[in-house]
Design goal:
The protein is of the alpha/beta class and 405 residues long. The strands form 7 sheets. Strands 3-2-1-7-19 form a 5-stranded parallel beta sheet. Helix 1 runs parallel beside helix 8. The protein is globular and about 55 Å long. It starts with a strand and ends in a 13-residue tail after the last helix.
Length: 405
Protein backbone atom coordinates (compact mmCIF):
# COMPACT_ATOMS: atom_id res chain seq x y z
CA UNK A 1 0.00 0.00 0.00
CA UNK A 2 1.61 3.22 -1.20
CA UNK A 3 -1.11 5.89 -1.09
CA UNK A 4 -3.63 6.36 1.72
CA UNK A 5 -6.13 9.20 1.68
CA UNK A 6 -8.32 10.41 4.51
CA UNK A 7 -11.56 12.29 3.85
CA UNK A 8 -12.44 14.50 6.81
CA UNK A 9 -10.53 16.71 9.20
CA UNK A 10 -12.41 16.09 12.43
CA UNK A 11 -11.38 13.96 15.40
CA UNK A 12 -11.57 10.70 13.43
CA UNK A 13 -9.60 11.98 10.45
CA UNK A 14 -6.84 13.50 12.55
CA UNK A 15 -6.54 10.36 14.67
CA UNK A 16 -6.41 8.16 11.57
CA UNK A 17 -3.46 10.16 10.26
CA UNK A 18 -1.61 9.88 13.57
CA UNK A 19 -2.38 6.17 13.97
CA UNK A 20 -1.33 5.25 10.44
CA UNK A 21 2.10 6.77 11.01
CA UNK A 22 2.37 5.29 14.51
CA UNK A 23 1.44 1.86 13.12
CA UNK A 24 4.25 2.03 10.58
CA UNK A 25 2.73 3.27 7.33
CA UNK A 26 5.51 5.04 5.40
CA UNK A 27 3.80 5.78 2.09
CA UNK A 28 2.07 8.93 0.93
CA UNK A 29 -0.59 10.06 3.41
CA UNK A 30 -3.03 12.85 2.50
CA UNK A 31 -5.84 14.29 4.61
CA UNK A 32 -8.55 16.25 2.76
CA UNK A 33 -10.76 18.61 4.76
CA UNK A 34 -13.41 21.04 3.59
CA UNK A 35 -12.50 23.33 6.49
CA UNK A 36 -9.61 25.76 6.30
CA UNK A 37 -8.48 25.07 9.86
CA UNK A 38 -6.06 22.47 11.17
CA UNK A 39 -8.10 19.67 12.83
CA UNK A 40 -9.40 21.05 16.15
CA UNK A 41 -11.30 20.15 19.30
CA UNK A 42 -15.02 20.55 18.65
CA UNK A 43 -16.59 20.20 22.14
CA UNK A 44 -15.36 23.62 23.39
CA UNK A 45 -17.22 25.42 20.60
CA UNK A 46 -20.50 25.47 22.53
CA UNK A 47 -18.90 26.55 25.80
CA UNK A 48 -15.42 28.05 26.34
CA UNK A 49 -15.04 29.27 22.76
CA UNK A 50 -18.30 31.23 22.78
CA UNK A 51 -17.49 32.77 26.17
CA UNK A 52 -13.83 33.49 25.46
CA UNK A 53 -12.21 36.43 23.71
CA UNK A 54 -9.95 34.35 21.47
CA UNK A 55 -11.36 33.21 18.12
CA UNK A 56 -8.59 30.66 17.57
CA UNK A 57 -9.28 26.93 17.67
CA UNK A 58 -7.77 24.40 20.06
CA UNK A 59 -5.76 22.35 17.59
CA UNK A 60 -5.74 18.58 18.07
CA UNK A 61 -2.10 18.58 16.99
CA UNK A 62 0.15 21.46 15.96
CA UNK A 63 1.10 22.11 12.34
CA UNK A 64 4.58 20.79 13.10
CA UNK A 65 3.14 17.35 13.82
CA UNK A 66 1.78 16.98 10.29
CA UNK A 67 4.99 18.36 8.82
CA UNK A 68 7.29 16.06 10.80
CA UNK A 69 5.12 13.01 10.08
CA UNK A 70 4.73 13.66 6.40
CA UNK A 71 0.97 14.15 6.46
CA UNK A 72 -0.14 16.28 3.51
CA UNK A 73 -3.04 18.53 4.47
CA UNK A 74 -5.40 19.63 1.72
CA UNK A 75 -7.48 22.18 3.63
CA UNK A 76 -10.44 24.05 2.21
CA UNK A 77 -10.83 21.33 -0.41
CA UNK A 78 -13.75 19.02 -1.07
CA UNK A 79 -14.00 15.49 -2.42
CA UNK A 80 -16.63 15.34 -5.13
CA UNK A 81 -16.48 11.62 -5.86
CA UNK A 82 -14.74 8.35 -5.02
CA UNK A 83 -13.70 6.52 -8.19
CA UNK A 84 -13.24 3.01 -6.82
CA UNK A 85 -12.39 1.45 -10.18
CA UNK A 86 -9.53 3.86 -10.81
CA UNK A 87 -8.49 4.11 -7.17
CA UNK A 88 -8.72 7.89 -7.04
CA UNK A 89 -10.58 10.72 -5.41
CA UNK A 90 -12.07 13.42 -7.60
CA UNK A 91 -11.47 16.73 -5.83
CA UNK A 92 -12.94 20.13 -6.54
CA UNK A 93 -9.65 21.06 -8.19
CA UNK A 94 -7.96 17.83 -9.23
CA UNK A 95 -7.49 14.16 -8.43
CA UNK A 96 -5.83 12.14 -5.70
CA UNK A 97 -4.80 8.47 -6.04
CA UNK A 98 -5.40 5.94 -3.27
CA UNK A 99 -5.01 2.27 -2.62
CA UNK A 100 -6.28 2.72 0.91
CA UNK A 101 -8.97 5.15 2.00
CA UNK A 102 -10.34 6.34 5.37
CA UNK A 103 -13.82 7.85 5.38
CA UNK A 104 -14.10 10.22 8.33
CA UNK A 105 -16.85 12.34 6.81
CA UNK A 106 -18.64 13.07 10.09
CA UNK A 107 -22.09 14.59 10.29
CA UNK A 108 -23.85 17.88 9.71
CA UNK A 109 -26.49 19.64 11.74
CA UNK A 110 -30.06 18.55 11.10
CA UNK A 111 -32.09 21.41 9.66
CA UNK A 112 -35.75 20.95 10.61
CA UNK A 113 -38.38 21.74 7.95
CA UNK A 114 -39.65 24.79 9.82
CA UNK A 115 -40.81 27.88 7.89
CA UNK A 116 -38.36 30.73 8.36
CA UNK A 117 -35.40 28.51 9.26
CA UNK A 118 -33.17 30.25 6.71
CA UNK A 119 -33.69 33.77 8.00
CA UNK A 120 -30.94 35.95 9.42
CA UNK A 121 -30.13 35.50 13.12
CA UNK A 122 -30.90 31.75 13.01
CA UNK A 123 -27.82 29.72 13.93
CA UNK A 124 -26.66 26.12 13.76
CA UNK A 125 -23.43 24.97 15.43
CA UNK A 126 -21.06 22.40 13.99
CA UNK A 127 -17.87 24.13 12.85
CA UNK A 128 -15.64 26.85 14.24
CA UNK A 129 -16.95 29.20 11.54
CA UNK A 130 -20.46 28.57 12.89
CA UNK A 131 -19.17 29.31 16.40
CA UNK A 132 -17.48 32.54 15.32
CA UNK A 133 -20.68 33.82 13.73
CA UNK A 134 -22.72 32.86 16.79
CA UNK A 135 -20.22 34.46 19.16
CA UNK A 136 -20.38 37.71 17.22
CA UNK A 137 -24.17 37.64 17.29
CA UNK A 138 -24.42 36.85 21.01
CA UNK A 139 -22.39 39.95 21.79
CA UNK A 140 -25.40 41.97 20.58
CA UNK A 141 -28.29 39.59 21.31
CA UNK A 142 -30.90 40.05 23.99
CA UNK A 143 -33.64 37.45 23.56
CA UNK A 144 -32.25 34.02 22.66
CA UNK A 145 -34.47 31.05 21.87
CA UNK A 146 -32.87 27.62 21.75
CA UNK A 147 -34.78 25.01 19.76
CA UNK A 148 -33.88 21.58 21.12
CA UNK A 149 -33.15 20.27 24.61
CA UNK A 150 -30.27 17.94 23.76
CA UNK A 151 -26.59 18.31 24.60
CA UNK A 152 -25.70 21.11 22.18
CA UNK A 153 -28.85 23.12 22.80
CA UNK A 154 -28.48 22.96 26.58
CA UNK A 155 -24.76 23.72 26.51
CA UNK A 156 -25.44 26.80 24.42
CA UNK A 157 -28.40 27.78 26.60
CA UNK A 158 -26.16 27.71 29.68
CA UNK A 159 -23.47 29.68 27.85
CA UNK A 160 -25.97 32.33 26.74
CA UNK A 161 -27.29 32.70 30.29
CA UNK A 162 -23.75 33.09 31.64
CA UNK A 163 -23.34 35.87 29.07
CA UNK A 164 -26.43 37.56 30.53
CA UNK A 165 -28.92 36.85 27.75
CA UNK A 166 -32.61 36.11 28.18
CA UNK A 167 -32.90 32.45 27.22
CA UNK A 168 -35.88 30.26 26.37
CA UNK A 169 -35.41 26.54 25.58
CA UNK A 170 -38.12 24.83 23.55
CA UNK A 171 -38.12 21.03 23.65
CA UNK A 172 -40.73 18.97 21.81
CA UNK A 173 -40.28 15.88 24.01
CA UNK A 174 -41.56 15.41 27.59
CA UNK A 175 -38.06 15.72 29.10
CA UNK A 176 -34.60 17.06 28.36
CA UNK A 177 -32.04 14.76 26.71
CA UNK A 178 -34.75 12.14 26.82
CA UNK A 179 -33.18 9.73 24.31
CA UNK A 180 -29.92 9.34 26.17
CA UNK A 181 -30.20 9.83 29.93
CA UNK A 182 -32.28 8.61 32.86
CA UNK A 183 -35.36 10.59 33.97
CA UNK A 184 -33.58 11.64 37.18
CA UNK A 185 -30.79 13.20 35.10
CA UNK A 186 -33.33 15.00 32.90
CA UNK A 187 -35.10 16.37 35.98
CA UNK A 188 -31.83 17.56 37.51
CA UNK A 189 -30.84 19.50 34.41
CA UNK A 190 -34.33 20.97 34.05
CA UNK A 191 -33.96 22.40 37.55
CA UNK A 192 -30.39 23.49 36.81
CA UNK A 193 -31.31 25.51 33.74
CA UNK A 194 -34.28 27.09 35.46
CA UNK A 195 -32.03 28.00 38.39
CA UNK A 196 -29.63 29.59 35.91
CA UNK A 197 -32.53 31.80 34.84
CA UNK A 198 -33.57 30.14 31.59
CA UNK A 199 -37.17 29.46 30.70
CA UNK A 200 -37.52 25.80 29.69
CA UNK A 201 -40.69 24.61 27.98
CA UNK A 202 -41.20 20.90 27.45
CA UNK A 203 -43.63 19.34 24.98
CA UNK A 204 -43.42 22.54 22.96
CA UNK A 205 -42.78 21.82 19.28
CA UNK A 206 -41.97 24.75 17.01
CA UNK A 207 -44.34 25.60 14.16
CA UNK A 208 -42.45 28.45 12.48
CA UNK A 209 -39.99 31.27 12.85
CA UNK A 210 -41.50 34.72 12.44
CA UNK A 211 -39.51 37.40 10.67
CA UNK A 212 -39.47 41.06 9.78
CA UNK A 213 -37.28 42.40 7.00
CA UNK A 214 -35.63 39.02 6.63
CA UNK A 215 -34.60 38.67 10.29
CA UNK A 216 -36.25 36.52 12.93
CA UNK A 217 -38.24 38.37 15.62
CA UNK A 218 -40.15 35.51 17.26
CA UNK A 219 -40.57 31.76 17.43
CA UNK A 220 -44.10 30.47 17.04
CA UNK A 221 -44.92 27.29 18.96
CA UNK A 222 -47.37 24.72 17.67
CA UNK A 223 -49.86 26.10 20.20
CA UNK A 224 -49.78 29.44 18.40
CA UNK A 225 -47.88 31.26 21.16
CA UNK A 226 -45.08 33.55 20.00
CA UNK A 227 -41.86 33.83 21.97
CA UNK A 228 -39.84 37.00 21.20
CA UNK A 229 -36.40 36.26 19.76
CA UNK A 230 -33.66 38.28 18.15
CA UNK A 231 -31.46 35.18 18.02
CA UNK A 232 -32.50 31.56 17.44
CA UNK A 233 -30.17 28.60 17.96
CA UNK A 234 -31.29 25.28 16.48
CA UNK A 235 -29.89 22.08 17.98
CA UNK A 236 -32.06 19.12 17.03
CA UNK A 237 -29.45 16.52 16.15
CA UNK A 238 -27.22 15.71 13.22
CA UNK A 239 -27.33 13.82 9.93
CA UNK A 240 -24.45 11.53 8.89
CA UNK A 241 -22.51 12.57 5.79
CA UNK A 242 -22.98 9.42 3.74
CA UNK A 243 -23.69 10.83 0.29
CA UNK A 244 -20.22 10.42 -1.18
CA UNK A 245 -20.00 6.83 0.09
CA UNK A 246 -23.45 6.01 -1.25
CA UNK A 247 -22.63 7.49 -4.65
CA UNK A 248 -19.54 5.29 -4.76
CA UNK A 249 -21.69 2.20 -4.30
CA UNK A 250 -20.72 1.47 -0.69
CA UNK A 251 -23.30 -0.05 1.63
CA UNK A 252 -25.08 2.64 3.68
CA UNK A 253 -27.94 2.37 6.20
CA UNK A 254 -28.26 5.24 8.69
CA UNK A 255 -24.54 5.61 8.21
CA UNK A 256 -21.65 4.05 6.30
CA UNK A 257 -21.95 0.37 7.17
CA UNK A 258 -18.76 -1.28 8.43
CA UNK A 259 -17.79 -4.67 9.84
CA UNK A 260 -16.28 -5.19 13.28
CA UNK A 261 -12.87 -4.00 12.05
CA UNK A 262 -14.28 -0.83 10.41
CA UNK A 263 -14.11 -2.16 6.83
CA UNK A 264 -16.76 -0.88 4.46
CA UNK A 265 -18.19 -3.10 1.72
CA UNK A 266 -14.96 -2.35 -0.17
CA UNK A 267 -12.04 -3.81 1.84
CA UNK A 268 -9.71 -1.05 0.63
CA UNK A 269 -11.93 1.51 2.34
CA UNK A 270 -12.44 1.86 6.08
CA UNK A 271 -14.58 4.36 7.97
CA UNK A 272 -14.70 5.90 11.44
CA UNK A 273 -16.66 8.43 13.47
CA UNK A 274 -20.11 10.01 13.43
CA UNK A 275 -20.98 8.78 9.93
CA UNK A 276 -20.40 5.09 10.73
CA UNK A 277 -23.03 2.42 11.39
CA UNK A 278 -21.63 -0.67 13.08
CA UNK A 279 -22.95 -3.81 14.77
CA UNK A 280 -22.55 -3.18 18.48
CA UNK A 281 -21.32 -6.25 20.33
CA UNK A 282 -23.31 -5.48 23.51
CA UNK A 283 -26.60 -4.37 21.93
CA UNK A 284 -26.54 -6.99 19.19
CA UNK A 285 -27.72 -4.56 16.52
CA UNK A 286 -26.40 -1.70 14.37
CA UNK A 287 -25.84 1.68 16.00
CA UNK A 288 -24.29 5.00 15.07
CA UNK A 289 -22.54 6.86 17.89
CA UNK A 290 -21.71 10.56 17.93
CA UNK A 291 -18.84 11.21 20.33
CA UNK A 292 -15.17 12.14 20.39
CA UNK A 293 -14.28 8.85 22.08
CA UNK A 294 -15.99 6.77 19.43
CA UNK A 295 -14.43 8.77 16.59
CA UNK A 296 -10.93 8.44 18.02
CA UNK A 297 -11.16 4.76 18.94
CA UNK A 298 -12.76 3.77 15.65
CA UNK A 299 -10.04 5.65 13.78
CA UNK A 300 -7.39 3.63 15.61
CA UNK A 301 -9.15 0.39 14.67
CA UNK A 302 -9.68 1.48 11.06
CA UNK A 303 -6.03 2.46 10.64
CA UNK A 304 -4.79 -0.85 11.98
CA UNK A 305 -7.17 -2.68 9.65
CA UNK A 306 -5.83 -0.89 6.58
CA UNK A 307 -2.33 -2.01 7.54
CA UNK A 308 -3.29 -5.67 7.92
CA UNK A 309 -3.56 -5.63 11.73
CA UNK A 310 -7.33 -5.93 12.01
CA UNK A 311 -8.88 -6.38 15.46
CA UNK A 312 -12.57 -6.25 16.43
CA UNK A 313 -13.73 -2.85 17.68
CA UNK A 314 -14.69 -3.29 21.32
CA UNK A 315 -14.16 0.13 22.90
CA UNK A 316 -16.56 1.06 25.70
CA UNK A 317 -18.50 4.16 24.63
CA UNK A 318 -18.45 7.24 26.82
CA UNK A 319 -19.77 10.76 26.47
CA UNK A 320 -19.88 14.02 28.39
CA UNK A 321 -21.64 17.38 28.47
CA UNK A 322 -20.70 20.48 30.49
CA UNK A 323 -23.68 22.71 31.30
CA UNK A 324 -23.05 25.59 33.66
CA UNK A 325 -21.11 24.16 36.60
CA UNK A 326 -22.51 20.64 36.10
CA UNK A 327 -20.51 17.93 34.39
CA UNK A 328 -22.62 15.14 32.95
CA UNK A 329 -20.67 11.96 32.14
CA UNK A 330 -22.12 8.81 30.59
CA UNK A 331 -20.51 5.46 30.00
CA UNK A 332 -22.08 2.51 28.19
CA UNK A 333 -25.40 2.45 26.35
CA UNK A 334 -28.59 2.49 28.39
CA UNK A 335 -31.24 2.06 25.69
CA UNK A 336 -31.83 -1.63 26.50
CA UNK A 337 -31.73 -1.26 30.28
CA UNK A 338 -34.77 -2.59 32.14
CA UNK A 339 -34.01 -1.12 35.59
CA UNK A 340 -31.84 1.47 37.28
CA UNK A 341 -30.25 2.04 40.68
CA UNK A 342 -29.58 5.57 41.97
CA UNK A 343 -26.47 6.40 43.97
CA UNK A 344 -26.21 9.71 45.77
CA UNK A 345 -28.69 12.52 46.22
CA UNK A 346 -29.50 14.82 43.29
CA UNK A 347 -30.07 17.63 45.78
CA UNK A 348 -26.36 17.47 46.63
CA UNK A 349 -25.42 18.13 43.00
CA UNK A 350 -23.40 14.91 42.84
CA UNK A 351 -25.09 11.61 41.97
CA UNK A 352 -25.23 8.73 39.49
CA UNK A 353 -27.79 6.40 37.95
CA UNK A 354 -26.61 2.84 37.25
CA UNK A 355 -28.48 1.09 34.45
CA UNK A 356 -28.97 -2.69 34.40
CA UNK A 357 -30.32 -5.23 31.95
CA UNK A 358 -31.25 -8.07 34.23
CA UNK A 359 -28.24 -8.33 36.55
CA UNK A 360 -25.81 -6.95 33.97
CA UNK A 361 -24.57 -3.38 34.25
CA UNK A 362 -24.95 -1.69 30.86
CA UNK A 363 -24.44 2.03 31.55
CA UNK A 364 -23.92 4.74 34.16
CA UNK A 365 -25.07 8.38 34.01
CA UNK A 366 -23.17 10.61 36.45
CA UNK A 367 -23.43 14.26 37.47
CA UNK A 368 -20.31 15.76 39.08
CA UNK A 369 -19.25 12.26 40.13
CA UNK A 370 -16.16 11.40 38.13
CA UNK A 371 -15.19 8.40 40.28
CA UNK A 372 -18.36 6.51 39.38
CA UNK A 373 -17.78 7.28 35.72
CA UNK A 374 -14.19 6.06 35.72
CA UNK A 375 -15.10 2.91 37.62
CA UNK A 376 -17.86 2.28 35.09
CA UNK A 377 -15.42 2.51 32.20
CA UNK A 378 -13.21 -0.08 33.87
CA UNK A 379 -16.08 -2.37 34.84
CA UNK A 380 -17.77 -2.36 31.44
CA UNK A 381 -14.46 -3.04 29.70
CA UNK A 382 -13.92 -6.03 32.02
CA UNK A 383 -17.54 -7.24 31.79
CA UNK A 384 -18.03 -6.78 35.54
CA UNK A 385 -21.38 -5.83 37.09
CA UNK A 386 -21.41 -4.55 40.67
CA UNK A 387 -24.21 -5.89 42.90
CA UNK A 388 -27.20 -3.59 43.03
CA UNK A 389 -27.18 -3.49 46.82
CA UNK A 390 -23.59 -2.25 46.82
CA UNK A 391 -24.42 0.48 44.34
CA UNK A 392 -27.43 1.65 46.36
CA UNK A 393 -25.45 1.76 49.64
CA UNK A 394 -23.22 4.83 49.74
CA UNK A 395 -21.34 3.42 52.71
CA UNK A 396 -19.85 0.84 50.32
CA UNK A 397 -16.61 1.90 48.63
CA UNK A 398 -17.27 0.90 45.03
CA UNK A 399 -13.53 0.77 44.32
CA UNK A 400 -13.43 -2.40 46.43
CA UNK A 401 -16.29 -4.39 44.89
CA UNK A 402 -14.54 -5.67 41.76
CA UNK A 403 -12.45 -8.77 42.51
CA UNK A 404 -8.73 -8.40 41.86
CA UNK A 405 -7.49 -10.56 39.01
Amino acid sequence: MQNIAIIGGGHAGAQAAASLRADGFDGRLVLVSAENELPYHRPPLSKAFIKGEDDATQELRPALFYEKNGVELLLGRTVEAIDRDAGRLVLDDGELPFDGLVLATGARVRVPPVPGINMANVFLLRTVDDARRLKQRLAEAHDVVVVGGGFIGLELAATARILGKTVTVLEAAPRLMGRVVAPAISAYFLDLHRTLGATVRLETPVASLVGENGAVVAVEAASGERIPADTVIVGVGVVPNIEIAEAAGLHVANGIVVDEAMRTSDPRIVAAGDAVSFHHWALGRPVRLESVQNAVDQAKTASATLLGKAQPYRAVPWFWSDQGDAKLQMVGLSMDADSSVPRGDPASGSFSVFHYQGDRLVAIDSVNRATDHMLGRRWLAAGFSPPREAVADESVDLKTVMPKV
